[in-house]
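Students often ask why we bother encoding 3D structure as a string. The short answer is that it lets us treat folding as translation between two languages. Here is a chain of 83 residues written in the first language.
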Amino acid sequence: MTRRQSRILIAAAVWTLYVWISRIVIMSGQDNSVGFKVVHGILAVISIGFGVAIGKIAWDARQAAKVDSRAQEPVRSARRGRR
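And here it is in the second language, the structure alphabet:
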């Protein structure tokens, strides 16, 4: 996964968390039926779970890319030094 792809996934995760957390806060202050609150609460929990999972996958891929780039850097400079 490229850094650009991981940034897009992190942005999607942050957006999902923002939307559903703010929706829960708004919904708690409204006078809706219990069924409405239960259904949207379940949707919120599932969406927040997906958002956290997407964010974790993207963050881990981003960290792995950093480690890979650091591990390959001495090899590149050593090759340049030999020539």
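Translate back mentally: The mean pLDDT is 87. Keep this in mind for the problem set.
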